[in-house]
Amino acid sequence: MRIVSGGIQHETNTFATVPTTLADFQLDSDCGDELAGGDRLRELYTGTGTIHGGYLDEATARGIDLEPVLSVHAQPAGPVEQSGFEHMLGLLLSRIEAAAPFDGVALDLHGAMVSDDHEDAEGAIVAAVRDLVGASMPIVVTLDYHANITEQLATVPDCLIGYDTYPHIDMNERGREAIGLLESIIRGEVTAVQAFRQLPLITMPPMQCTLRDPMSGLIQRLHVLEEDPGVVTATIAMGFPFADITDAGVTVLVTANGDEELAERRADELAGWVWELRDELQPKLTTIEEAMRFSREESEGLVILADGSDNPGGGAPCDGTIALAAMLAADFQGGVVGVLYDPETAARAHELGEGAEAEFRIGGKTDTMHGDPVVTTARVKRLGDGRFTFAGPMKRGCPGDLGPMAVLEVGGVEVVVASRRMQLLDTEMVRIVGVEPSEKRLLVVKSAVHFRADVGPWAETIFDADTPGIHRPDFSCFDYKHLRRPIYPLDSELGGQDLFGRSD
Questions:
Q1: Residues forming beta bridges with residue 286, ordered by sequence position
Q2: For the residues 16-42, what does the mean pLDDT come to?
Q3: pTM for this model (two decimals)
Q4: Closest CA to 97 of 68, 133, 151
């Protein structure tokens, strides 16, 4: 049996001011300007905690010949430039065609990519692949937990499989599941019948986290549902709310083996469970001032303030300074801010060398929404080249590169700066420059949720930050022009109805 795999991944924040270019994909994918597939992808992903790692590992275990033709991604930012999108889609299609003959296709997509011309870029991808391979070719798609799933995306492939975790620690497992299911479809053991429900609901990242309620309990119920012998797989996609598109929001999918009535009934059941939790899915935010007070007066261990408003994993610039400025003004001792994206500051620190003291202009360089540059005298405490290997449960075994890094010491606060934009989701990202979270009092992380998988366990207490930004978990900050309406909680009258429009 021969399977071809490919993927184009991007989480697009339509409120972001910086567009996403082909060069961004070339930089982040580590596959050269040509975006190499084949052996380069096997080298990068075999045995790693990634979707394509799962594809490759499971194919090997099952004796399947899997040909990975393309796997590209870029850090979340603004819409993908159309020329870059078309170039990557062209590569995917031409390489799939060149890989023939094959028995099935596995696609590693995100589900929240927007290009200049496509609100539903993944829908355009699956439609193009389907046109290429024909109606009878089995196609299984893996999607991110934050996918904004449209009718087209849900109906063109044979089956969609979404992550069950946020932080995304089950990517390898979901990739393995996809290959196993695809093999069963190819062999005629499974006839995939998929039911799709789009809820009138949009939610913010902090409470989407599956390490805490209500989502932890909901995912447990999902797994019980999947124990039904007629159910092949089920997915809750919580959506990406920072995409102002028609179909942003929560969806559920249930796939049954040839039993359409079962899939439809179970999809209604799953959607109802999510809807019942709509009010519990709204976050509570904490100011940096309250986090500092709590750290000084009530905590004996590390306090983490998750600066999700400036989370580069959701398209924010990652150079916001609101929390940093407040910590310096308060003369806070034992604080860390990181990882802050500031290649200019990192370069100057490397020019000066370790131990040097000088005036720096830190952060606040991308836009005016996340705070002004902090102009202050700082000591260059530590330098590094930014290269590391992910050791935590997310992206385990993959190489990472933050570019030239520096730790600047300003009074009692350390600022970890890097030359590449990436959310702090692995402790190795700060350990490589000598910062040990367990030894600190207050850590401000440029992340919304992913840090909880590997950095979070060091904390005694975690707060979601009340800071401004384009990834702020507060719907009142965003002017939606394209999102379908009515939708909860933007349209509060829906809160008094059940999922099918009946009043409580």
A1: 465
A2: 97
A3: 0.95
A4: 133
